[in-house]
Specification:
The chain is mostly helical. It has one domain. It has 16 helices and no strands. Helix 2 packs across helix 10, helix 3 packs across helix 8 and helix 4 packs antiparallel against helix 5. The protein is globular, with a radius of gyration of 20 Å.
């Protein structure tokens, strides 16, 4: 996607298919995870699919955000974009969810400190982008972020208010994504020949197969251990029954597993242009709008209780269809004013304002420069 800046010619940015492919697949996995949630209590197979997806897809989403994040001191334009890319859409969509809840018979409570459903990511992204310039001043930013994440899990008062639990819990993946760019892994990966690339892909497939097999063979134990609660990063350990000191070790183990799965996922993503590469520039729309499409299914009760075996694959296919539909140019034109607002009216006239297309990593990041 190109940017248009006042007083400058229209410049076209070079896009790397690898990252557009990765972003579209990642956001489609988000849709899948949300689509099958209602099935996991009555189906071991659905729970296996859910745990498999959640073992890496949210960390992956966060890591790609970090990969394209700017680590230098923010300038005026960057600060403007924090307002237009994150704060403005958050306020608009949180207000919409509040009105929807009220129209369906709930109380009208406009509380911007409690993010509705998927909107926690916007709050977390705002904080991560603000603190990254400070994190990179430290000698060991990744290690420190891991310690922050593990430590936050012991403090019960760190909860969902302003998505603080997830913001701190998932911070290591944002920093990890930034580190991937510093290591210039994209350029190294794209430079590999086909044969060598497939050796890595075989290793990645082995890792994912081992993960799926482990989940399938131990699904009852994983239910008992409440591994899902650890994968959500949304609550402190004591709130779901883990008040032992070693609880942080479970988060640490799952974190290192997610690091490995992120690399494995990126290794498996096609490096060339595919039929869905162009859809990678629309991931902001998929992320922000898919919850409205799934809302009737989740809240109507139609997915409650045991379901026929075909429902799970049907929902997975539906998720892909939703992702494709929300990538259509018509959808983007209709919802651009609230998802990619220019919001020139928001800023002082004598200030330099951004008048171009808004992009939000990892949903629509700047061009790859490696």
């Amino acid at each position: 996607m190109s940017a248009r800046v006042a007083g400058r010619p229209h410049q076209k940015k070079r896009r790397v298919p690898l990252w557009d492919n990765a972003r579209w697949i990642a956001v489609t996995l988000v849709v899948m995870g949300h689509a099958i949630l209602k099935l996991i209590h009555g189906s071991d197979l659905a729970y296996e699919a859910y745990l498999f997806i959640y073992a890496f897809h949210v960390p992956l989403f966060v890591a790609v955000s970090g990969y394209f994040a700017r680590s230098g001191p923010p300038g005026t334009r960057q600060l403007h974009r924090l307002l237009t890319d994150i704060v403005f859409p958050y306020v608009v969509f949180e207000t919409i969810w509040t009105l929807l809840h009220w129209l369906l018979g709930g109380d009208f409570t406009l509380d911007y400190s409690s993010a509705s459903w998927t909107l926690w990511f916007l709050i977390a992204l705002l904080v991560w982008r603000l603190i990254l310039p400070f994190m990179v001043l430290l000698r060991y930013p990744l290690l420190i972020s891991i310690l922050i994440s593990i430590g936050a899990g012991y403090i019960a008062s760190i909860d969902g208010t302003f998505s603080l639990s997830r913001t701190l819990g998932l911070l290591p993946f944002f920093v990890f994504g930034w580190k991937l760019r510093q290591w210039k892994l994209t350029a190294r990966w794209l430079a590999l020949g086909v044969g060598e690339a497939w050796r890595w892909r075989i290793g990645a497939l082995t890792l994912f197969s081992a993960l799926l097999g482990t989940i399938a063979l131990n699904i009852e134990a994983l239910r008992t251990l409440q591994i899902r609660q650890f994968l959500l990063y949304s609550a402190a350990y004591p709130t779901f029954g883990y008040d032992q000191l070693w609880a942080g070790g479970i988060r640490l183990g799952l974190m290192f597993l997610a690091f490995a799965l992120i690399i494995a996922f990126l290794v498996l993503v096609p490096r060339r242009t595919t039929w869905f590469t162009a859809l990678g520039s629309a991931t902001m729309y998929i992320y922000m709008l898919h919850s409205f499409v799934l809302f009737p299914l989740r809240e109507s009760g139609v997915l409650g209780g045991p379901q026929p075996a075909w429902v799970l694959p049907a929902l997975l296919l539906l998720s892909v269809a939703i992702s494709v539909f929300l990538s259509l140019p018509l959808v983007r034109r209709v919802f651009r004013p609230i998802i990619e607002p220019r919001a020139r009216w928001l800023f002082r006239k004598h200030e330099s304002t951004h008048t171009g297309t808004i992009v939000l990593p990892p949903l629509d990041p700047p061009a790859e420069k490696d």
